[in-house]
Design goal:
The protein is of the alpha/beta class and 316 residues long. It is built from 13 helices and 16 strands. It has a seven-stranded parallel sheet, sandwiched between helices. A three-stranded mixed sheet has the order 9-8-12.
Length: 316
């Protein structure tokens, strides 16, 4: 197949593109900057440079690539300060709204058969009921005020992708990413854990789902060939913050995280952080396993975290 990957140099794209190339697909990788075109080539794809927020530019790029499938992995999270949650995600939210609309329109005009888009599993779910949610459960009807624009953007992306008459739309709600240099193993996060600047807020009662970046890429490859609608792409082992954060610190050889009352964390870091540490919900991957024929190779963050932390200790 001919596959157009928007966001080819992002966390998922860097793992996904080589997989698709090895499987014999012809891959075009979209990037916004000429500097990243070299990386796209290194991954094995044909680079195309275009601004996803420019409808005409995207139309031309997709038309020239003549893809059977478009994969939307566009985000912009550089220097994110979650104290201003909606501000940190402002560009990503434009990509989820305007960028998705431009990509969908271009895909439809080019006769694309399938459209696969990135979403998120976790804090967007309603903060009530079961700790572990399925795709049929509602998203949060009343998110914290500084998370509303971000949730609106997620709702928009999921709605327009899954309700379009054509192409067939698939939305993947990824769990929290991890992998070497990715997500919780980014250098800044590791440093925060070691300096005890990643505290356990309140009782650490929020539930999280994780997914190894390679498993996220594999699920995306599966969705290129099958499925329709929304899927949680997470591992088999959802866990509360009070469990996974101290475990991560131990694996990294750091002291246990400090405990911070929720009211103090609210003053210092804002409502979004408190929500994600005390109220967020995790997700079930049963539907993705069943309908996408996907099985995570890293079924639990416990073993996945430990393996990466062990490699870091050996490299130190």
């Amino acid at each position: 197949m001919r596959i157009f990957v928007a966001g080819a140099t992002g966390a998922v794209g860097r793992s996904l593109v080589p997989r698709l190339v090895r499987a014999g697909h012809s891959v075009t990788g979209l990037t916004r900057t000429p500097a990243k075109a070299v990386l796209v080539q290194t991954l094995g794809a044909e680079p195309v440079i275009a601004d996803a927020l420019d409808a005409r530019s995207i139309q031309a790029a997709v038309t020239a690539a003549r893809p059977d499938v478009v994969v939307h992995q566009l985000t912009d999270l550089k220097g994110a300060d979650l104290r201003d949650f909606d501000g940190a995600f402002a560009t990503s939210n434009r990509l989820r709204q305007e960028g998705t609309d431009h990509l969908l329109a271009a895909a439809r005009a080019a006769g694309v058969q399938r459209f696969v888009a990135q979403s998120y599993c976790g804090w967007p779910y309603a903060r009530e009921g079961a700790d572990v949610k399925t795709e049929d459960d509602a998203l949060d009807p009343t998110p914290p005020s500084n998370m509303r624009r971000t949730l609106e953007a997620i709702r928009h992306l999921e709605r327009v992708v899954t309700t379009a008459a054509a192409p067939i739309g698939v939305v993947l709600r990824y769990g929290g990413f991890y992998g070497p240099g990715t997500g919780v193993f980014e250098a800044t996060t590791i440093d925060q854990v070691h300096r005890r600047r990643f505290p356990l807020v309140g009782g650490g009662t929020a539930w999280w789902s994780f997914v190894h970046i390679d498993d996220a890429a594999e699920a995306t490859a599966c969705a290129i060939e099958r499925g329709h609608g929304i899927y949680n792409v997470v591992d088999d082992d959802p866990a509360p913050v009070a469990e996974w954060l101290p475990a991560l610190a131990t694996m990294l050889g750091a002291k246990p995280p400090l405990r911070l009352p929720a009211f103090i964390a609210r003053l210092l870091a804002g409502e979004a952080i408190v929500t994600m540490m005390t109220q967020s919900r995790a997700g079930s991957n049963a539907k993705a396993k069943r309908e996408l024929s996907w099985q995570p190779r890293h079924p639990s963050w416990r073993q996945g975290f430990a393996a990466i932390a062990g490699d870091l200790r050996l490299a130190a």
